[in-house]
Protein 1
Amino acid sequence: MTYDDQNIFARILRNELPAIKVYEDDQVLAFMDIMPQAEGHTLVIPKSPAVTLLDLDPQEAAYTIQVVQKIAKAMEKALDVKGIVLMQLSGAAAGQTVPHVHFHLIPSSVHELGKHGVQMGDQDQIKVLADKIKAAL
Ligand code: 5GP
Protein backbone atom coordinates (compact mmCIF):
# COMPACT_ATOMS: atom_id res chain seq x y z
CA MET A 1 0.00 0.00 0.00
CA THR A 2 1.31 3.50 -0.82
CA TYR A 3 2.67 5.26 2.22
CA ASP A 4 1.62 8.87 2.89
CA ASP A 5 4.60 10.49 4.59
CA GLN A 6 2.38 13.34 5.83
CA ASN A 7 0.32 11.05 8.08
CA ILE A 8 0.19 12.05 11.75
CA PHE A 9 2.52 9.33 13.00
CA ALA A 10 5.12 10.05 10.29
CA ARG A 11 5.04 13.67 11.47
CA ILE A 12 5.41 12.60 15.11
CA LEU A 13 8.39 10.43 14.10
CA ARG A 14 10.01 13.50 12.48
CA ASN A 15 9.21 15.56 15.61
CA GLU A 16 7.02 17.88 13.56
CA LEU A 17 4.15 17.17 15.95
CA PRO A 18 4.38 16.66 19.71
CA ALA A 19 3.73 13.34 21.42
CA ILE A 20 4.01 12.06 24.98
CA LYS A 21 6.71 9.46 24.43
CA VAL A 22 7.46 6.54 26.72
CA TYR A 23 10.14 4.68 24.74
CA GLU A 24 12.26 5.23 21.65
CA ASP A 25 15.11 3.43 19.96
CA ASP A 26 16.43 3.40 16.40
CA GLN A 27 13.60 1.17 15.13
CA VAL A 28 10.54 1.76 17.31
CA LEU A 29 8.65 4.55 19.11
CA ALA A 30 6.07 4.12 21.89
CA PHE A 31 3.86 7.04 22.88
CA MET A 32 0.57 7.77 24.59
CA ASP A 33 -2.65 7.76 22.57
CA ILE A 34 -4.11 11.26 22.43
CA MET A 35 -7.70 9.91 22.73
CA PRO A 36 -7.22 7.05 25.18
CA GLN A 37 -9.83 4.33 25.40
CA ALA A 38 -8.57 3.57 28.91
CA GLU A 39 -6.02 5.06 31.31
CA GLY A 40 -2.55 4.24 30.02
CA HIS A 41 -3.54 3.57 26.37
CA THR A 42 -0.20 3.43 24.58
CA LEU A 43 0.74 3.07 20.92
CA VAL A 44 3.83 1.27 19.62
CA ILE A 45 5.00 1.96 16.08
CA PRO A 46 7.90 0.78 13.97
CA LYS A 47 9.79 3.67 12.41
CA SER A 48 9.78 2.23 8.92
CA PRO A 49 7.13 3.53 6.51
CA ALA A 50 4.53 0.74 6.47
CA VAL A 51 0.80 1.40 6.28
CA THR A 52 -0.46 -1.88 7.73
CA LEU A 53 0.98 -4.93 9.44
CA LEU A 54 0.83 -6.67 6.07
CA ASP A 55 3.26 -4.11 4.60
CA LEU A 56 5.76 -4.43 7.44
CA ASP A 57 9.01 -6.34 7.04
CA PRO A 58 8.64 -9.55 9.14
CA GLN A 59 11.86 -8.91 11.08
CA GLU A 60 10.70 -5.41 11.95
CA ALA A 61 7.32 -6.82 12.95
CA ALA A 62 9.07 -9.30 15.24
CA TYR A 63 11.18 -6.57 16.83
CA THR A 64 8.15 -4.30 17.26
CA ILE A 65 6.32 -7.07 19.11
CA GLN A 66 9.31 -7.44 21.45
CA VAL A 67 8.94 -3.75 22.31
CA VAL A 68 5.16 -4.18 22.66
CA GLN A 69 5.85 -6.87 25.28
CA LYS A 70 8.39 -4.65 27.05
CA ILE A 71 5.91 -1.76 27.25
CA ALA A 72 3.12 -4.11 28.41
CA LYS A 73 5.32 -5.33 31.26
CA ALA A 74 6.12 -1.75 32.27
CA MET A 75 2.42 -0.87 32.17
CA GLU A 76 1.62 -3.82 34.38
CA LYS A 77 4.29 -2.76 36.87
CA ALA A 78 3.47 0.96 36.82
CA LEU A 79 -0.30 1.12 36.57
CA ASP A 80 -3.22 -0.61 38.23
CA VAL A 81 -3.60 -2.94 35.26
CA LYS A 82 -5.92 -5.96 35.42
CA GLY A 83 -5.56 -6.93 31.78
CA ILE A 84 -4.27 -5.47 28.52
CA VAL A 85 -5.98 -5.55 25.14
CA LEU A 86 -3.44 -5.62 22.28
CA MET A 87 -5.20 -4.23 19.22
CA GLN A 88 -3.89 -3.81 15.70
CA LEU A 89 -6.15 -2.57 12.92
CA SER A 90 -4.97 -3.22 9.37
CA GLY A 91 -6.85 -1.18 6.78
CA ALA A 92 -9.56 1.47 6.85
CA ALA A 93 -12.16 -1.27 6.51
CA ALA A 94 -10.99 -2.60 9.88
CA GLY A 95 -11.32 0.88 11.41
CA GLN A 96 -7.70 2.00 10.98
CA THR A 97 -7.63 5.80 10.96
CA VAL A 98 -3.91 6.58 10.90
CA PRO A 99 -2.14 5.00 7.89
CA HIS A 100 1.10 4.06 9.67
CA VAL A 101 1.14 0.60 11.26
CA HIS A 102 0.65 0.72 15.04
CA PHE A 103 -0.14 -1.54 17.96
CA HIS A 104 -2.57 -0.36 20.64
CA LEU A 105 -1.88 -1.43 24.22
CA ILE A 106 -5.09 -0.74 26.13
CA PRO A 107 -5.38 -1.57 29.84
CA SER A 108 -8.99 -2.66 29.59
CA SER A 109 -11.25 -5.54 28.59
CA VAL A 110 -12.62 -6.30 25.15
CA HIS A 111 -16.06 -6.09 26.77
CA GLU A 112 -15.42 -2.45 27.74
CA LEU A 113 -14.12 -1.22 24.38
CA GLY A 114 -16.05 0.16 21.44
CA LYS A 115 -15.49 3.92 21.44
CA HIS A 116 -12.50 4.18 19.12
CA GLY A 117 -10.56 7.47 19.07
CA VAL A 118 -13.54 9.71 19.84
CA GLN A 119 -12.64 11.76 22.89
CA MET A 120 -9.50 13.77 23.65
CA GLY A 121 -7.87 12.77 26.91
CA ASP A 122 -6.55 15.11 29.58
CA GLN A 123 -2.99 15.46 28.33
CA ASP A 124 -1.59 16.46 31.76
CA GLN A 125 -3.07 13.34 33.30
CA ILE A 126 -1.74 11.25 30.38
CA LYS A 127 1.74 12.69 30.96
CA VAL A 128 1.62 11.49 34.59
CA LEU A 129 0.76 7.95 33.41
CA ALA A 130 3.52 8.10 30.76
CA ASP A 131 6.08 9.08 33.43
CA LYS A 132 5.03 6.07 35.52
CA ILE A 133 5.41 3.70 32.54
CA LYS A 134 8.81 5.22 31.68
CA ALA A 135 10.00 4.78 35.25
CA ALA A 136 9.03 1.09 35.13
CA LEU A 137 10.95 0.36 31.90
P1 5GP B 1 -6.34 3.46 14.46
O1 5GP B 1 -7.75 3.87 14.33
O2 5GP B 1 -5.58 3.90 13.24
O3 5GP B 1 -6.13 2.03 14.83
O4 5GP B 1 -5.76 4.25 15.71
C1 5GP B 1 -5.23 5.51 15.64
C2 5GP B 1 -5.04 5.99 17.06
O5 5GP B 1 -4.23 7.14 17.02
C3 5GP B 1 -6.36 6.37 17.75
O6 5GP B 1 -6.48 5.64 18.95
C4 5GP B 1 -6.20 7.87 18.00
O7 5GP B 1 -6.74 8.25 19.25
C5 5GP B 1 -4.70 8.07 17.95
N1 5GP B 1 -4.28 9.36 17.47
C6 5GP B 1 -4.81 10.06 16.43
N2 5GP B 1 -4.14 11.21 16.26
C7 5GP B 1 -3.17 11.24 17.22
C8 5GP B 1 -2.15 12.20 17.54
O8 5GP B 1 -1.99 13.24 16.94
N3 5GP B 1 -1.34 11.87 18.59
C9 5GP B 1 -1.48 10.71 19.29
N4 5GP B 1 -0.63 10.52 20.29
N5 5GP B 1 -2.42 9.80 19.01
C10 5GP B 1 -3.26 10.06 17.98
Protein 2
Amino acid sequence: MSFIVNKNERLNVLVEDLTHDGSGVAKVEGYPLFIPGALPGEEVDIQVGKTLKNYGFGRLINVKKASPDRVDPPCHVFPECGGCQLQHLSYEGQLVQKRKTVRDVMDRIAKLPHVPVHPVKGMDNPWRYRNKSQIPFSEQDGKVVSGFYRSRTHHIVDTDVCIIQSEEADELMSTLKHEMHAFGIDAYDEKAHRGMLRHLIVRKGRATGEIMVVLVTRKKKFPQKEAVVELIKRVVPDVTSIMQNVNDQKTNVIFGDETILLYGKTFIIDSIGPIDFEISARSFYQVNPEQTEVLYGQALEYAQLTGGESVIDAYCGIGTISLFLAQKAKEVYGVEIVPQAIEDAKRNAELNGIDNAHFEAGPAEVVIPKWYADGKRFDVLVVDPPRKGCDEELLKTILEYKPKRVVYVSCNPGTLARDLRILEDGGYRTQEVQPVDMFPHSSHVECVAWLETTL
Ligand code: SAH
Protein backbone atom coordinates (compact mmCIF):
# COMPACT_ATOMS: atom_id res chain seq x y z
CA MET A 1 0.00 0.00 0.00
CA SER A 2 1.22 3.44 -0.87
CA PHE A 3 -0.59 6.75 -0.51
CA ILE A 4 1.51 8.48 -3.14
CA VAL A 5 0.65 6.33 -6.17
CA ASN A 6 -2.25 3.98 -6.78
CA LYS A 7 -2.34 0.61 -8.45
CA ASN A 8 -3.18 0.75 -12.20
CA GLU A 9 -2.67 4.53 -12.25
CA ARG A 10 -0.91 5.82 -15.39
CA LEU A 11 2.06 8.08 -14.85
CA ASN A 12 4.72 9.86 -16.81
CA VAL A 13 8.03 9.60 -14.97
CA LEU A 14 11.73 10.33 -15.33
CA VAL A 15 14.01 7.33 -14.81
CA GLU A 16 16.97 8.18 -12.58
CA ASP A 17 18.77 4.95 -11.89
CA LEU A 18 19.16 1.28 -12.75
CA THR A 19 19.04 -1.50 -10.15
CA HIS A 20 21.63 -4.24 -10.13
CA ASP A 21 19.12 -6.55 -11.82
CA GLY A 22 18.41 -4.18 -14.67
CA SER A 23 15.19 -2.39 -13.64
CA GLY A 24 14.86 1.36 -14.13
CA VAL A 25 14.13 3.38 -10.98
CA ALA A 26 11.93 6.49 -10.95
CA LYS A 27 10.88 8.43 -7.87
CA VAL A 28 7.48 9.98 -7.28
CA GLU A 29 7.79 12.36 -4.32
CA GLY A 30 10.65 10.23 -3.04
CA TYR A 31 8.71 6.95 -3.47
CA PRO A 32 10.76 4.58 -5.69
CA LEU A 33 9.10 2.70 -8.52
CA PHE A 34 10.97 -0.15 -10.21
CA ILE A 35 10.32 -0.31 -13.94
CA PRO A 36 11.73 -3.31 -15.84
CA GLY A 37 12.94 -2.29 -19.31
CA ALA A 38 13.39 1.42 -18.56
CA LEU A 39 16.82 3.08 -18.64
CA PRO A 40 18.34 5.99 -16.70
CA GLY A 41 17.70 9.37 -18.34
CA GLU A 42 14.50 8.20 -20.05
CA GLU A 43 11.06 9.76 -19.85
CA VAL A 44 8.51 6.94 -19.83
CA ASP A 45 4.80 6.30 -19.51
CA ILE A 46 4.02 3.57 -17.02
CA GLN A 47 1.15 1.82 -15.38
CA VAL A 48 1.60 1.34 -11.65
CA GLY A 49 1.63 -2.32 -10.61
CA LYS A 50 2.08 -3.71 -7.12
CA THR A 51 2.73 -1.08 -4.44
CA LEU A 52 4.33 -1.79 -1.08
CA LYS A 53 5.07 0.48 1.85
CA ASN A 54 8.51 1.61 0.75
CA TYR A 55 8.53 0.95 -2.98
CA GLY A 56 6.41 -0.19 -5.89
CA PHE A 57 6.56 -1.49 -9.47
CA GLY A 58 5.62 0.02 -12.79
CA ARG A 59 4.95 -1.58 -16.18
CA LEU A 60 6.59 0.20 -19.07
CA ILE A 61 3.97 1.34 -21.60
CA ASN A 62 5.84 3.77 -23.78
CA VAL A 63 9.30 5.32 -23.97
CA LYS A 64 8.69 9.02 -24.61
CA LYS A 65 12.29 10.12 -24.61
CA ALA A 66 14.77 7.29 -25.12
CA SER A 67 18.25 7.08 -23.62
CA PRO A 68 21.02 7.58 -26.23
CA ASP A 69 22.32 4.22 -24.95
CA ARG A 70 19.10 2.33 -25.77
CA VAL A 71 19.50 -0.36 -28.46
CA ASP A 72 17.19 -2.95 -30.02
CA PRO A 73 17.82 -6.22 -28.16
CA PRO A 74 19.16 -8.64 -30.82
CA CYS A 75 17.57 -11.67 -29.13
CA HIS A 76 13.89 -12.39 -29.83
CA VAL A 77 13.21 -13.95 -26.40
CA PHE A 78 14.68 -11.03 -24.43
CA PRO A 79 13.56 -10.22 -21.76
CA GLU A 80 11.06 -13.12 -21.23
CA CYS A 81 13.82 -15.72 -21.04
CA GLY A 82 15.45 -14.04 -18.05
CA GLY A 83 19.00 -15.14 -18.89
CA CYS A 84 20.03 -11.61 -19.88
CA GLN A 85 18.94 -8.40 -18.16
CA LEU A 86 20.64 -5.64 -20.15
CA GLN A 87 20.32 -6.36 -23.88
CA HIS A 88 18.35 -3.12 -24.33
CA LEU A 89 21.41 -1.14 -23.18
CA SER A 90 24.41 -0.67 -25.51
CA TYR A 91 27.49 -2.65 -24.46
CA GLU A 92 29.40 0.55 -23.69
CA GLY A 93 26.41 1.67 -21.62
CA GLN A 94 26.45 -1.63 -19.71
CA LEU A 95 30.12 -1.18 -18.82
CA VAL A 96 29.49 2.37 -17.58
CA GLN A 97 26.58 1.10 -15.51
CA LYS A 98 28.58 -1.75 -13.98
CA ARG A 99 31.38 0.60 -12.98
CA LYS A 100 28.80 2.85 -11.35
CA THR A 101 27.43 -0.11 -9.36
CA VAL A 102 30.90 -0.83 -7.99
CA ARG A 103 31.65 2.86 -7.31
CA ASP A 104 28.37 3.14 -5.45
CA VAL A 105 29.05 0.28 -3.01
CA MET A 106 32.63 1.48 -2.51
CA ASP A 107 31.23 4.86 -1.39
CA ARG A 108 28.16 3.69 0.50
CA ILE A 109 29.13 0.35 2.06
CA ALA A 110 32.94 0.28 2.14
CA LYS A 111 33.10 4.02 2.87
CA LEU A 112 36.13 4.30 0.61
CA PRO A 113 35.28 7.21 -1.72
CA HIS A 114 38.97 7.93 -2.38
CA VAL A 115 39.80 4.41 -3.66
CA PRO A 116 39.97 4.30 -7.48
CA VAL A 117 37.50 2.05 -9.30
CA HIS A 118 38.87 1.62 -12.82
CA PRO A 119 36.76 1.42 -15.99
CA VAL A 120 35.36 -2.10 -16.42
CA LYS A 121 37.45 -4.41 -18.60
CA GLY A 122 34.90 -5.64 -21.15
CA MET A 123 34.96 -7.93 -24.19
CA ASP A 124 35.74 -6.90 -27.77
CA ASN A 125 32.99 -9.21 -28.95
CA PRO A 126 30.48 -9.69 -26.13
CA TRP A 127 28.47 -12.48 -27.83
CA ARG A 128 28.75 -16.28 -27.90
CA TYR A 129 31.07 -16.18 -24.91
CA ARG A 130 29.59 -18.99 -22.81
CA ASN A 131 31.53 -22.26 -23.00
CA LYS A 132 28.85 -24.26 -21.22
CA SER A 133 25.11 -24.56 -21.86
CA GLN A 134 22.69 -26.53 -19.72
CA ILE A 135 19.46 -26.67 -21.67
CA PRO A 136 16.25 -28.11 -20.21
CA PHE A 137 13.84 -30.02 -22.47
CA SER A 138 10.13 -30.44 -21.93
CA GLU A 139 6.86 -31.09 -23.77
CA GLN A 140 4.25 -28.37 -24.15
CA ASP A 141 1.00 -29.38 -25.91
CA GLY A 142 2.58 -32.44 -27.47
CA LYS A 143 5.53 -30.48 -28.86
CA VAL A 144 9.12 -30.60 -27.64
CA VAL A 145 10.37 -27.29 -26.29
CA SER A 146 13.85 -26.35 -25.16
CA GLY A 147 15.44 -23.13 -24.14
CA PHE A 148 15.84 -21.45 -20.81
CA TYR A 149 13.70 -21.15 -17.72
CA ARG A 150 11.77 -17.93 -17.38
CA SER A 151 13.24 -16.07 -14.47
CA ARG A 152 12.22 -17.56 -11.10
CA THR A 153 9.96 -20.18 -12.74
CA HIS A 154 10.15 -23.63 -14.21
CA HIS A 155 8.47 -22.57 -17.42
CA ILE A 156 10.71 -23.01 -20.46
CA VAL A 157 10.83 -20.10 -22.89
CA ASP A 158 11.18 -22.00 -26.18
CA THR A 159 13.93 -20.90 -28.53
CA ASP A 160 16.22 -22.36 -31.19
CA VAL A 161 18.94 -19.76 -30.73
CA CYS A 162 20.83 -18.22 -27.83
CA ILE A 163 23.47 -15.75 -28.97
CA ILE A 164 25.33 -16.00 -25.66
CA GLN A 165 26.19 -19.67 -26.17
CA SER A 166 28.21 -21.50 -28.85
CA GLU A 167 26.84 -22.09 -32.35
CA GLU A 168 27.25 -25.82 -31.79
CA ALA A 169 24.99 -25.62 -28.72
CA ASP A 170 22.37 -23.81 -30.84
CA GLU A 171 22.51 -26.45 -33.56
CA LEU A 172 22.31 -29.37 -31.14
CA MET A 173 19.48 -27.76 -29.21
CA SER A 174 17.32 -27.17 -32.27
CA THR A 175 18.13 -30.41 -34.12
CA LEU A 176 17.35 -32.56 -31.09
CA LYS A 177 14.18 -30.64 -30.44
CA HIS A 178 12.86 -31.05 -33.98
CA GLU A 179 14.04 -34.61 -34.62
CA MET A 180 13.94 -36.51 -31.33
CA HIS A 181 10.29 -37.61 -31.63
CA ALA A 182 11.25 -39.36 -34.89
CA PHE A 183 13.68 -41.44 -32.82
CA GLY A 184 10.96 -42.37 -30.36
CA ILE A 185 12.41 -40.12 -27.66
CA ASP A 186 10.19 -37.78 -25.74
CA ALA A 187 11.14 -34.95 -23.40
CA TYR A 188 10.86 -35.12 -19.65
CA ASP A 189 7.62 -34.02 -18.01
CA GLU A 190 8.56 -32.60 -14.63
CA LYS A 191 5.10 -32.73 -13.10
CA ALA A 192 4.24 -36.29 -14.11
CA HIS A 193 7.88 -37.47 -13.78
CA ARG A 194 7.58 -39.14 -17.20
CA GLY A 195 9.46 -38.88 -20.47
CA MET A 196 13.12 -39.36 -21.34
CA LEU A 197 15.35 -36.38 -22.17
CA ARG A 198 15.79 -33.94 -19.27
CA HIS A 199 18.77 -31.78 -20.18
CA LEU A 200 21.27 -31.27 -22.95
CA ILE A 201 24.67 -30.03 -21.78
CA VAL A 202 27.22 -28.73 -24.24
CA ARG A 203 30.75 -27.75 -23.19
CA LYS A 204 33.36 -26.35 -25.50
CA GLY A 205 37.06 -25.74 -24.94
CA ARG A 206 37.70 -22.24 -26.21
CA ALA A 207 41.40 -22.76 -26.83
CA THR A 208 41.18 -26.33 -28.12
CA GLY A 209 37.78 -26.41 -29.85
CA GLU A 210 37.03 -29.73 -28.12
CA ILE A 211 33.33 -30.34 -27.58
CA MET A 212 31.48 -32.46 -25.03
CA VAL A 213 27.79 -33.30 -25.28
CA VAL A 214 25.93 -34.76 -22.29
CA LEU A 215 22.37 -36.06 -22.49
CA VAL A 216 20.69 -36.28 -19.11
CA THR A 217 18.00 -38.95 -19.33
CA ARG A 218 15.48 -40.22 -16.83
CA LYS A 219 16.28 -43.87 -17.53
CA LYS A 220 19.48 -45.65 -18.40
CA LYS A 221 17.90 -47.43 -21.35
CA PHE A 222 16.70 -45.13 -24.05
CA PRO A 223 15.57 -46.05 -27.57
CA GLN A 224 17.89 -45.69 -30.54
CA LYS A 225 20.87 -44.59 -28.48
CA GLU A 226 23.26 -45.32 -31.35
CA ALA A 227 21.15 -43.38 -33.83
CA VAL A 228 21.18 -40.37 -31.51
CA VAL A 229 24.97 -40.54 -31.22
CA GLU A 230 25.13 -40.56 -35.03
CA LEU A 231 22.77 -37.58 -35.15
CA ILE A 232 24.99 -35.61 -32.75
CA LYS A 233 28.06 -36.49 -34.83
CA ARG A 234 26.24 -35.34 -37.96
CA VAL A 235 25.36 -31.97 -36.39
CA VAL A 236 28.77 -31.42 -34.78
CA PRO A 237 31.34 -33.50 -36.69
CA ASP A 238 34.14 -32.27 -34.39
CA VAL A 239 32.51 -33.59 -31.21
CA THR A 240 35.14 -35.26 -29.00
CA SER A 241 32.98 -36.60 -26.19
CA ILE A 242 29.37 -37.81 -25.94
CA MET A 243 28.13 -38.86 -22.52
CA GLN A 244 24.85 -39.95 -20.98
CA ASN A 245 23.97 -39.08 -17.44
CA VAL A 246 21.08 -40.85 -15.74
CA ASN A 247 18.88 -38.91 -13.35
CA ASP A 248 15.74 -40.77 -12.25
CA GLN A 249 15.02 -38.52 -9.26
CA LYS A 250 12.22 -35.99 -8.94
CA THR A 251 14.52 -33.05 -8.41
CA ASN A 252 15.74 -29.68 -9.70
CA VAL A 253 19.30 -30.95 -9.60
CA ILE A 254 20.45 -31.46 -13.18
CA PHE A 255 22.82 -34.40 -12.85
CA GLY A 256 22.22 -37.87 -11.48
CA ASP A 257 24.96 -40.09 -10.07
CA GLU A 258 25.64 -42.33 -13.08
CA THR A 259 27.54 -41.07 -16.14
CA ILE A 260 28.10 -43.35 -19.14
CA LEU A 261 30.50 -42.78 -22.04
CA LEU A 262 28.75 -43.10 -25.42
CA TYR A 263 31.49 -41.85 -27.75
CA GLY A 264 35.04 -40.44 -27.58
CA LYS A 265 36.68 -39.36 -24.32
CA THR A 266 35.23 -38.72 -20.84
CA PHE A 267 36.66 -35.19 -20.69
CA ILE A 268 37.69 -32.21 -22.79
CA ILE A 269 40.81 -30.09 -22.44
CA ASP A 270 40.83 -26.32 -22.38
CA SER A 271 43.52 -23.83 -21.48
CA ILE A 272 43.61 -20.46 -19.78
CA GLY A 273 46.88 -18.72 -20.60
CA PRO A 274 49.59 -21.38 -20.48
CA ILE A 275 47.67 -23.74 -18.15
CA ASP A 276 45.70 -26.75 -19.41
CA PHE A 277 42.58 -27.97 -17.63
CA GLU A 278 40.85 -31.30 -17.88
CA ILE A 279 37.08 -30.80 -17.71
CA SER A 280 34.71 -33.70 -17.14
CA ALA A 281 30.91 -33.71 -17.44
CA ARG A 282 30.36 -32.35 -13.94
CA SER A 283 33.53 -30.32 -13.27
CA PHE A 284 33.18 -26.73 -12.22
CA TYR A 285 34.88 -24.44 -14.73
CA GLN A 286 34.53 -20.71 -15.39
CA VAL A 287 31.94 -20.12 -18.14
CA ASN A 288 33.72 -17.25 -19.90
CA PRO A 289 37.32 -18.36 -20.40
CA GLU A 290 38.35 -15.29 -22.43
CA GLN A 291 37.46 -12.96 -19.55
CA THR A 292 38.69 -15.43 -16.94
CA GLU A 293 42.14 -14.89 -18.40
CA VAL A 294 41.65 -11.12 -17.95
CA LEU A 295 40.39 -11.58 -14.37
CA TYR A 296 43.22 -13.89 -13.31
CA GLY A 297 45.77 -11.75 -15.13
CA GLN A 298 44.59 -8.85 -12.98
CA ALA A 299 44.81 -10.94 -9.79
CA LEU A 300 48.33 -11.97 -10.76
CA GLU A 301 49.33 -8.36 -11.47
CA TYR A 302 48.02 -7.19 -8.07
CA ALA A 303 49.76 -10.11 -6.32
CA GLN A 304 53.12 -8.69 -7.61
CA LEU A 305 54.96 -11.95 -7.24
CA THR A 306 58.73 -12.08 -7.65
CA GLY A 307 59.23 -15.81 -7.22
CA GLY A 308 59.97 -15.99 -3.50
CA GLU A 309 56.48 -15.71 -2.05
CA SER A 310 54.26 -18.18 -0.25
CA VAL A 311 50.70 -17.62 -1.40
CA ILE A 312 47.27 -18.81 -0.24
CA ASP A 313 44.43 -19.27 -2.74
CA ALA A 314 41.29 -19.46 -0.60
CA TYR A 315 38.09 -20.75 -2.25
CA CYS A 316 40.26 -22.22 -5.01
CA GLY A 317 37.69 -24.39 -6.85
CA ILE A 318 39.59 -26.63 -9.30
CA GLY A 319 42.75 -24.59 -8.70
CA THR A 320 42.47 -22.26 -11.68
CA ILE A 321 43.89 -19.21 -9.88
CA SER A 322 46.35 -21.31 -7.85
CA LEU A 323 47.97 -22.78 -10.96
CA PHE A 324 48.14 -19.32 -12.54
CA LEU A 325 49.90 -17.96 -9.42
CA ALA A 326 52.18 -20.98 -9.01
CA GLN A 327 54.11 -20.00 -12.14
CA LYS A 328 55.37 -16.85 -10.38
CA ALA A 329 55.48 -17.84 -6.67
CA LYS A 330 57.65 -20.05 -4.48
CA GLU A 331 54.62 -22.05 -3.37
CA VAL A 332 50.85 -21.86 -3.44
CA TYR A 333 48.40 -23.39 -0.96
CA GLY A 334 44.85 -23.78 -2.26
CA VAL A 335 41.82 -24.60 -0.12
CA GLU A 336 38.30 -25.44 -1.26
CA ILE A 337 35.27 -27.02 0.42
CA VAL A 338 34.26 -29.44 -2.39
CA PRO A 339 36.53 -32.54 -2.26
CA GLN A 340 35.91 -33.41 -5.94
CA ALA A 341 37.17 -29.95 -6.98
CA ILE A 342 40.35 -30.52 -4.95
CA GLU A 343 40.85 -33.84 -6.77
CA ASP A 344 40.53 -31.94 -10.07
CA ALA A 345 42.97 -29.27 -8.84
CA LYS A 346 45.58 -31.91 -7.98
CA ARG A 347 45.17 -33.63 -11.34
CA ASN A 348 45.40 -30.31 -13.19
CA ALA A 349 48.62 -29.45 -11.31
CA GLU A 350 50.05 -32.78 -12.37
CA LEU A 351 48.84 -32.38 -15.95
CA ASN A 352 50.83 -29.13 -16.16
CA GLY A 353 53.90 -30.40 -14.32
CA ILE A 354 53.36 -27.87 -11.52
CA ASP A 355 54.80 -29.19 -8.25
CA ASN A 356 54.73 -26.09 -6.04
CA ALA A 357 50.93 -26.01 -5.63
CA HIS A 358 49.39 -27.86 -2.67
CA PHE A 359 45.67 -28.41 -2.20
CA GLU A 360 43.53 -29.25 0.78
CA ALA A 361 39.78 -29.89 0.97
CA GLY A 362 37.83 -28.21 3.77
CA PRO A 363 36.33 -24.88 4.83
CA ALA A 364 38.83 -22.04 4.29
CA GLU A 365 37.98 -20.64 7.73
CA VAL A 366 39.12 -23.91 9.33
CA VAL A 367 42.00 -24.97 7.10
CA ILE A 368 43.83 -21.61 6.94
CA PRO A 369 44.00 -21.12 10.75
CA LYS A 370 45.32 -24.69 10.91
CA TRP A 371 48.10 -23.87 8.41
CA TYR A 372 49.11 -20.88 10.51
CA ALA A 373 48.92 -22.94 13.71
CA ASP A 374 51.27 -25.44 12.03
CA GLY A 375 53.80 -22.62 11.67
CA LYS A 376 53.28 -21.87 7.96
CA ARG A 377 53.56 -18.19 6.99
CA PHE A 378 52.29 -16.44 3.86
CA ASP A 379 53.14 -13.22 2.02
CA VAL A 380 50.09 -12.94 -0.22
CA LEU A 381 46.55 -14.17 0.24
CA VAL A 382 44.13 -14.44 -2.67
CA VAL A 383 40.43 -15.00 -1.94
CA ASP A 384 37.66 -15.72 -4.46
CA PRO A 385 34.60 -16.43 -2.29
CA PRO A 386 31.05 -17.27 -3.39
CA ARG A 387 28.40 -14.50 -3.52
CA LYS A 388 27.97 -14.32 0.23
CA GLY A 389 31.57 -13.13 0.62
CA CYS A 390 34.28 -14.22 3.07
CA ASP A 391 33.42 -16.09 6.22
CA GLU A 392 33.84 -13.92 9.34
CA GLU A 393 36.26 -16.41 10.86
CA LEU A 394 38.45 -16.17 7.77
CA LEU A 395 38.51 -12.36 8.00
CA LYS A 396 39.52 -12.68 11.67
CA THR A 397 42.36 -15.01 10.73
CA ILE A 398 43.57 -12.58 8.06
CA LEU A 399 43.59 -9.74 10.60
CA GLU A 400 45.37 -11.86 13.17
CA TYR A 401 48.23 -12.99 10.93
CA LYS A 402 48.27 -10.05 8.51
CA PRO A 403 49.75 -11.33 5.27
CA LYS A 404 51.32 -8.26 3.65
CA ARG A 405 49.09 -8.27 0.59
CA VAL A 406 45.52 -9.41 -0.03
CA VAL A 407 44.00 -9.80 -3.49
CA TYR A 408 40.23 -10.11 -3.28
CA VAL A 409 38.44 -11.54 -6.34
CA SER A 410 34.68 -11.06 -5.99
CA CYS A 411 31.50 -11.89 -7.91
CA ASN A 412 29.36 -9.69 -5.65
CA PRO A 413 30.27 -6.00 -5.20
CA GLY A 414 28.02 -5.69 -2.12
CA THR A 415 29.77 -8.34 -0.03
CA LEU A 416 33.17 -7.21 -1.39
CA ALA A 417 32.51 -3.70 -0.05
CA ARG A 418 31.36 -5.09 3.32
CA ASP A 419 34.53 -7.21 3.67
CA LEU A 420 36.83 -4.37 2.53
CA ARG A 421 35.44 -2.22 5.35
CA ILE A 422 36.20 -4.98 7.90
CA LEU A 423 39.75 -5.37 6.55
CA GLU A 424 40.27 -1.56 6.55
CA ASP A 425 39.17 -1.35 10.18
CA GLY A 426 41.66 -4.12 10.97
CA GLY A 427 44.60 -2.29 9.41
CA TYR A 428 44.56 -2.94 5.64
CA ARG A 429 44.42 -0.22 3.01
CA THR A 430 42.54 -0.86 -0.25
CA GLN A 431 44.70 0.42 -3.09
CA GLU A 432 42.43 0.04 -6.10
CA VAL A 433 39.57 -1.97 -7.60
CA GLN A 434 39.42 -3.33 -11.14
CA PRO A 435 36.00 -4.53 -12.34
CA VAL A 436 35.90 -7.17 -15.11
CA ASP A 437 32.85 -8.04 -17.21
CA MET A 438 32.52 -11.82 -17.12
CA PHE A 439 28.83 -11.92 -18.12
CA PRO A 440 27.97 -9.37 -20.84
CA HIS A 441 24.22 -8.52 -21.04
CA SER A 442 23.62 -9.80 -17.52
CA SER A 443 23.71 -7.49 -14.53
CA HIS A 444 26.66 -9.30 -12.91
CA VAL A 445 30.07 -7.75 -12.48
CA GLU A 446 33.28 -9.25 -11.05
CA CYS A 447 35.99 -7.24 -9.30
CA VAL A 448 39.57 -7.62 -8.22
CA ALA A 449 40.63 -5.50 -5.23
CA TRP A 450 44.21 -5.00 -4.06
CA LEU A 451 44.96 -4.41 -0.37
CA GLU A 452 48.18 -3.83 1.61
CA THR A 453 48.81 -3.89 5.35
CA THR A 454 49.75 -0.62 6.98
CA LEU A 455 52.34 -2.36 9.16
N1 SAH B 1 38.57 -19.62 -7.59
C1 SAH B 1 37.77 -20.61 -8.27
C2 SAH B 1 36.36 -20.80 -7.71
C3 SAH B 1 35.68 -19.63 -7.10
S1 SAH B 1 33.97 -19.92 -6.76
C4 SAH B 1 37.72 -20.30 -9.75
O1 SAH B 1 37.91 -19.16 -10.15
O2 SAH B 1 37.46 -21.19 -10.53
C5 SAH B 1 33.95 -20.06 -5.01
C6 SAH B 1 34.36 -21.43 -4.49
O3 SAH B 1 34.31 -21.40 -3.07
C7 SAH B 1 33.46 -22.58 -4.92
O4 SAH B 1 34.26 -23.55 -5.56
C8 SAH B 1 32.88 -23.13 -3.59
O5 SAH B 1 32.75 -24.53 -3.59
C9 SAH B 1 33.93 -22.69 -2.59
N2 SAH B 1 33.53 -22.53 -1.19
C10 SAH B 1 32.34 -22.12 -0.69
N3 SAH B 1 32.40 -21.98 0.64
C11 SAH B 1 33.66 -22.33 1.02
C12 SAH B 1 34.35 -22.37 2.27
N4 SAH B 1 33.73 -22.07 3.41
N5 SAH B 1 35.65 -22.73 2.27
C13 SAH B 1 36.28 -23.06 1.11
N6 SAH B 1 35.68 -23.03 -0.10
C14 SAH B 1 34.38 -22.68 -0.15
